[in-house]
Amino acid sequence: MKNPKVVILGAGYGGMMTTVKLQKLIGTNEADITLVNKHDYHYQTTLLHETSAGTAPQEQVKIAIKDVVDFSKVNFVQDTVVSIDPKAKKVQLEDGELEYDYLVIGLGFESATFGIKGLEENAFMISNVNNARLIREHIEYNFSRYNNEPEDRPELLTIVIGGAGFTGIEFAGEIANRVPELCREYDIDRSKVRIITVEAGPSALAGFDPELVEYALNKLEAKGVEFRLSTAVKEAKADSIIVEHDGQQEEIKTENFIWAAGVKGNPIVEQSGFEVNRGKVQVRPDLRTPDYDDVFVVGDCALIMNEESGRPYPPTAQMAMQQGPVVAQNLKTLIRGGGELQEFEPNILGTLASLGSRDAMGVVFGNKKLFGWSASFMKKMSDNRYLMKLGGIGLVLKKGKFDIFH
Ligand code: FAD
Ligand code: NAD
Question: Which pTM value belongs to this model?
Answer without folding.
Answer: 0.97
